[in-house]
Amino acid sequence: MVLKLRKSVTAVLTAVFLAACALLIHNGAEATRTGLYAMSFGRDQSGPLLISLFQNNVQDAAQLFYADYYSAVPIVDPWDISVVGIKKQEDSFTVTFAAKPYLGPHDYIGRDEIEFAVLKYGTAALIDYRHIENYELPENLKSLQKKAFEE
Known about the structure:
Number of helices: 2
Radius of gyration: 17 Å
Number of domains: 1
Number of strands: 8
Structural class: alpha+beta
């Protein structure tokens, strides 16, 4: 019973995701550069939908990436994530997000791009995590840093 419910939920989420992607591709959404990169969705809510669906994936990827650099787990809030782009592959999609993880009371530690592959049955897999820009921590949080980023 639980397995059937999980398969149903996965199928629904996959259908919603693919419909959102099709709508974006149909509307010719283009990436723009603003603070974080953002896709122009206008009244279309597929951007926030994608962010909601991938929130945990982005959080997990940031946690994995920053584990070597900080002793604390960074947080990535939904409002600090934007959709950079969506590419249709032969039998999958590639979705790229921009994110700004933080430590403490919203002290940002960097600006990153995270890329996922979405396979035809809704499975998401991390492809790449790119640390674009590093932000210096305030004095009260410097003890959390294990090692510095290479330039």
